[in-house]
Design a protein that fits this description.
This protein is an all-alpha fold. Helices cover 86% and strands 0% of the residues.
Amino acid sequence: MKPVNPRVGTFKRFILNNRFVLFLLILLLIGLNILVFMKVSFIFTPIEVLIKTILLPIILAAIVYYLLNPVVDFFERKGIRRIYTILVLFIVIIGLLTILIVSVIPFLKEQVLSLIKSFPQYTSDVEQLVRDVVGSDFVNQAQKTLNINVADLSKQISDQASTIINNMFAGIGNIVGIVKDFILAIVTLPFILFYLLKDGKKLGPYVLKFMPVSFRSSTYNVMLEMNNQISSYIRGQIIVSFCIGALMYIGFLIIGMEYASLLALIAAFTSVVPYLGPAIAITPAFIIALVTSPFMVLKLIIVWTIVQLVEGKFISPQIMGRNLHIHPITIIFVILTAGNLFGVVGIILAVPGYAVLKVIVTHLFEWMKIRSNMYEQRDQINSKNK
């Protein structure tokens, strides 16, 4: 029997038997794999095109699925086959869309055209207001006191506005592609939605077949928690958005705001983005109120404040609850980061995507704690040593 080299024994004890070092080695191997895949990324171009093509239809179908699936499950528990409930829901949706197209859309179209027609007048009114403010005695006194060159400041603002406008016109070509993708998504949406509602329950067991037997239970728990997070967020956020739009519409009617229905619809859509959405929604309403009268600005601020208080204190806690367990500051950082990385789609999907990623990372961390024994309490370690 060959004697054991003490150097090999030391290496094995401090390197191979050290779980932390093995964990770092695994991370190193993962990083090397990522580096290799980045060098041959052109191989995945067809997959990237495929994902970009099917992503929007799948997202839209998933949103509608989480809204309609509870209804289908309810009637299935009552003994009605899923296929019959799905067909009835499709007929109801087609009827509601027909009513919407016939009655609501023409009214909104008139408001949009009227707003576009009045936009030059609003622009000239804002310019005149800025000139009046810049030429006032208060601004002149402040300019002398603070040593601010208002002309240079106005020129910088004008240059920035021109740059933004030029970028908007330069992006018109991209709008055509977005419209094409959206139309394709709308056409394929009913087919994807039908099969999701019909066979959606089979997706989980099908995925579990590919997992090792020892991991199926934990994987099922992760999938179940992710499904609960996404469904709670989508259903809750749509209900909250509807409530905000309705409250804004009522408030705009009370204060006599022009284009009340259009502005309320903008508020409802933008409120899908937490925290940042209301700030985006108030901008067009503030411009219209500003050129109307200072008193209208005050009334708008009061309405917006009341709606935000009602939404923050009563609507969201009751509907959304605290299912996501995400701090508001974290949500803002996640939205800003996702917006810079993926644009508008990233802003919309930032919060549910972060919630899903949080579930996965949390379960991986718990698994690592159990496997590595690196987070045992000190008294447990001491008892083992004894």
